[in-house]
Design goal:
There is one protein chain. The protein is α+β, with helices and mostly antiparallel strands and 392 residues long. The protein folds into two domains: 56-186, Sandwich (Jelly Rolls), CATH 2.60.120; 230-388, Jelly Rolls. The chain is built from five helices and 17 strands. The strands form four sheets. It has a five-stranded antiparallel β-sheet with strand order 9-10-16-12-13. A four-stranded antiparallel β-sheet has the order 1-7-3-4, with no helix packed on it. The chain has a four-stranded mixed β-sheet with strand order 6-5-2-8, with no helix packed on it. The radius of gyration is 22 Å and the shape is globular.
C-alpha cells in the first residue's frame, strides 16, 4: 500500500487497472494497433459504465443507465432505453410513474448482474407494466415479500434473492410519443443518506479498478467464443433468459465476416405474431455500432418486407442502395444479433455470401432502390429520433 493508513493509494488503483492488459490475448491479433486501441477504449468505457453502479445504495434506489449510445458495450440494443438500480430483496419498494407510449416497459429482477459490487446471478422475476393497473397512463406498484394486509393496489412478490432491477423500454418509432417516467423508493426504511467512511470508499474503488478486466472479458469472450465454435457467417440460437436477456425471446447470433467485394444477405421468415423484433450489428468487442449516425440496426417498424413476406437485409461496407442495408461501420468483421420477442414462432435466419457485382441478381426483382438523397433523408430522421429519446 502507498498510504500510511493502509488503504489503497492512487498507484494501487492504477496497478489493478493495468491487469486488464492481459485481455489483449483474446484478440485475433494482439499486435494489430487498431484492435489494441479499441480494447483500451473498451477499458475506459467500462470504467465510466462501472462508476454508475459502484456507489449505488439499495436503501436509496434510483433508476440510472449503465449502457447507452455512448456506453455502447455488451450489445446495447438501439431500440431500448435501459436503466437499473440496486435493491435489497428483503425490502419493500414502491414503483411509480407514467408508462409512456412505447411498445413495452419490462422490469427484470435479478440476483446479481454486471454491476461493480455484484456477481452475476439469475433472473428471479419479471414485471410487464402492461399487466398493471394504469390510471391516466400512471402506475403505482408495491414490491415486497408478502402482500401487506389491506393493500388493494398492484403488488408484486419480491424474491429475497433480488439484488438488481433492470428496466427496458422499447420503441419502434424513435422520438415519437412519450418515453416512460419511472421512480422507485424504499418504504421499509427511512430516507437516511450517509457519508461513506474511508474503508468503504476504498472497497468500492478497488472493485471499480478491477471492473474493466471483468466487464471487457465478458464482452470480448462472447464474440471470441462464437468465432472459435465456427459461427462465422452462420447463426446459433440462444436463450439469454436469466443471463441478462429477456425471457420469452428467441436470439439468433453469430459473427459476420466480409471479404473485399462481398456482401452478406440475411434472409428470414417473419413470425405471424411477434411483440417485438430487431436485428443489429456490433463490432468484434461486442460494442453496438454507432446507431445514431449509421443504419446498423433495423426493427419491426423500420424494416421493409419483401412482397413474399420475408425480411431480407444486406450487410455491406458501402451502401448497396437497398432499403434494408445494415451498415457495419467500417468493420469487415463483427457480431450480429436478431431477436424475436413473444413470437408465435422463432424462424432461423440464413446468411449468404455474394459478390457485390451480382447482388441485384440475388435479391427479389421488385426490391426497391434507395438513392443517396433518400438515404440521407432516412439517416437524418434516424438521428433526430434517436436524440429525442431519453438516453441518460
Amino acid at each position: 500500500m502507498t498510504t500510511s493508513d493502509a488503504l489503497p493509494g492512487w498507484r494501487d488503483y492504477l496497478a489493478t487497472l493495468g491487469g486488464a492488459d492481459r485481455l489483449l490475448d483474446v484478440l485475433a491479433d494482439r499486435n494489430d494497433p487498431l484492435a489494441r486501441q479499441e480494447v483500451y477504449r473498451l477499458f475506459f468505457l467500462s470504467l465510466a459504465s462501472g462508476f454508475n453502479s459502484a456507489f449505488m445504495d439499495p436503501d436509496l434506489p434510483d433508476f440510472t443507465p449503465s449502457v447507452s449510445n455512448v456506453l455502447n458495450a455488451v450489445g446495447t440494443n438501439p431500440d431500448f432505453i435501459y436503466a437499473g438500480t440496486l435493491i435489497d430483496g428483503g425490502g419493500t419498494y414502491r414503483l411509480s410513474g407514467e408508462r409512456g407510449d412505447g411498445l413495452f416497459v419490462l422490469f427484470d429482477f435479478v440476483g446479481g448482474g454486471l454491476y461493480v459490487t455484484e456477481q452475476r446471478g439469475p433472473s428471479v422475476g419479471t414485471l410487464d407494466l402492461d399487466t398493471c393497473t394504469l390510471k391516466d397512463g400512471r402506475f403505482d406498484v408495491l414490491l415486497s415479500a408478502e402482500r401487506p394486509a389491506g393493500h388493494e393496489g398492484d403488488w408484486v412478490r419480491l424474491d429475497p434473492r433480488a439484488r438488481v432491477i433492470s428496466v427496458r423500454q422499447a420503441s419502434y418509432d424513435w422520438g415519437e410519443g412519450r418515453d416512460a417516467r419511472l421512480a422507485i423508493e424504499r418504504l421499509d426504511r427511512p430516507i437516511a443518506p450517509r457519508r461513506l467512511d474511508a474503508a468503504e470508499i476504498a472497497r468500492r474503488l478497488a472493485l471499480l479498478a478491477a471492473y474493466p478486466e471483468r466487464y471487457a472479458a465478458f464482452a470480448m469472450e462472447y464474440v471470441a467464443s462464437q468465432r472459435a465454435r465456427g459461427f462465422v457467417n452462420r447463426l446459433e440460437h440462444d436463450d439469454w433468459a436469466g443471463r441478462g436477456g429477456l425471457a420469452g425471446q428467441h436470439y439468433y447470433q453469430g459473427v459476420f465476416r466480409l471479404e473485399p467485394g462481398e456482401a452478406l444477405i440475411l434472409e428470414t421468415e417473419v413470425p405471424e405474431r411477434v411483440r417485438y423484433w430487431n436485428i443489429q450489428l456490433n463490432d468484434t468487442l461486442w460494442n453496438a455500432i454507432d446507431w445514431i449516425n449509421r443504419q446498423c440496426s433495423l426493427n419491426g417498424g423500420q424494416a421493409v418486407l419483401d412482397s413474399d413476406g420475408k425480411f431480407r437485409a444486406v450487410i455491406a461496407m458501402e451502401d448497396p442502395g437497398v432499403p434494408n442495408w445494415l451498415d457495419p461501420g467500417g468493420h469487415a468483421e463483427g457480431s450480429l444479433m436478431l431477436r424475436w420477442l413473444e413470437s408465435s414462432s422463432g424462424p432461423e435466419p440464413t446468411l449468404t455470401t455474394t459478390p457485390l457485382h451480382v447482388l441485384g441478381d440475388r435479391l427479389p426483382p421488385d426490391t426497391a432502390h434507395v438513392t443517396p438523397d433518400q438515404r440521407q433523408d432516412a439517416l437524418r430522421r434516424r438521428r433526430r429520433g434517436a436524440q429525442l429519446r431519453r438516453r441518460w
